[in-house]
Amino acid sequence: MVDWVSAKDTDWDGVRLHVVTGKGGTGKTTVAAALALALAAGGRKVLLVEVEGRQGIAQLFDCPPLPYEERKVAVAPEGGEVYALAIDTEEALIEYLEMFYNLKRAGKAMSKLGLVDFVTTIAPGLRDVILTGKTSESVRRREKNGSFVYDAVVMDAPPTGRITKFLNVNDEVSGLAKVGPVRNHADTVMKVVRSPETAVHFVTLLEEMPVQETMDGIHDLTEVGLPVGGVIVNMEHPPVLGADELAAAAAGTLDQEEIVRGLKAAGLERDAEPIAAELIREATEHAQRTALQKREKERLEGIDRPRYVLPLLPDGMDRAGLYDLAEALRKQGAA
Q1: CATH of residue 131
Q2: Residues 262 and 198 in one domain
Q3: What pLDDT is stored for residue 204 in this prediction?
Q4: Does the chain have fewer CB atoms within 10 Å around its N or its C terminus?
């Protein structure tokens, strides 16, 4: 059973839009879902938004594919709720045309003719404005009594290599519109994205390429004045050997004969030698991975941003694993 820490001030007090990015394969969707659960703990209401059309959120929470509407997908500890929205570009464009141009019927006709894909292909900046705009609207939306509908919004955003272009929509639409609804909409989006209420978090593994993309992404965001959040190290492999054994494995000096004797004493006399050789091979790989993690962690220490570490779950990812990761984020002050 999860032992949830008591509510406390977090590193991100005042932040209402948490954008989660990371190199492909780092587990950014999983981390975004865990962050949403952590933020919802204690009776809060959080919206988790997906913008890439992969239905990754539905898979994580083991629910049917999400339609283009906000649906509750999880209950957080202490009464909180997580809602999810998979933004469909076509539906969002039709909604956009209705909102700003009163052209809902025209939008549906465009959809039937395949013009929606055509429009967003020749003007990809418009697609990003629509996706970020829908998320920003969720951040700003209020109840009749003036309170926000959602206490926080978490966006499972595009990968690190595209995140600056995706969020910096003013530059993206500069060639599309100088004035009018498109420009006004982009300006409204940027007021949210550039505000202290937004933080862009980077998910990485302790491997050379993800760490380098994280560092490059942080540099790029800083260059254009977008708010950098924290760095979340995902799937850290804990060392299973002591320091002396790791050093011996890395140096190739593990005593195979001693391992064989130990295996024979354990009743594995017949296959002791091949098993010992395989164990030495695995120990060497483990020592190399541990050294790599240490080196990449030292590189990340040069980034002046909060850092959080999530463990590799030995039993794989499931719903219970999401709650474990959410607990880890809470304990480290991320939510």
Answers
A1: 3.40.50.300
A2: no
A3: 98
A4: N
